[in-house]
Design brief:
single chain, alpha+beta, Endonuclease I-creI, 2 domains, 11 helices, 8 strands
Amino acid sequence: MKEDELKEILNREQNQFRWNSWLAGLLDSCGNIMLSKTYVYGKIEIKLQRQDHECFENIKIKYGGSVKVCRTGIRYRLKHQEGLKNLLEDINGHLRIPVRLYQVRELCKKNNIELKQPDNAIRLDNAWISGFFDGIGSIVINQTTLENKKQLVIIFNQKTNQILLTLQQLFGGKIYINTNKQSGMYKYALYFTKKVEILQLYDYFKKFPSRSDKNKRILLIAQYYDLQTKLRLVENQKLWNQFLNQWEYHISDEIQSKALLKAVKTEKKSKGLNSK
């Protein structure tokens, strides 16, 4: 076999591995795997925000299925046997969330696939974290809550803290516990505001890119910090507004991060008083 042919095979295998681990992370974060009398071979659903239509179209091209706009965003659904079997074989051995492993175990039995267990530790040499972030993460600029009115924040939300604690060991950040049961479905949030930690995440995403609409903002992280350095020397609102247009800033950014960053601000004030 020629060297070029070998490189092509290795690249193809590497790209497939990246895809498989990314898709498993996405399913772990916001997917649902079902088996019922109606869906004999099973059904897989994933829900994202409406702007992630292209992300779902790429999944649809690979496995079939349908993409539909719904009240809370956009939904991908797969229920035909051939597509299900192909998808199950791709994500097999990459899923990590216990409830998702339980769900996929039943589907694998039905489709005569031997279930593989994942590695014990979440690692930085695959795209699982990228897929997980695409499902439940957010990257926002908050302009109202903190003393720094142009604060970049990256957030991972989850119902439990198990995965978040592992991500905290890898990248740093702080965990916020939402005690307001009426404010949403997520109880825990791992958030990053420190430049050094966000740049660590940025380096990871350069190797394993987000495949959702969030990638547009991730690609602007380095530009954001360059601009912050310039604005500390000379205030230039026009330059900042131009960047916000690239960022596609929305007031919903403030809503997403408001409660969390208020808690951060309160914590900083409390530490300041205690140190006096």
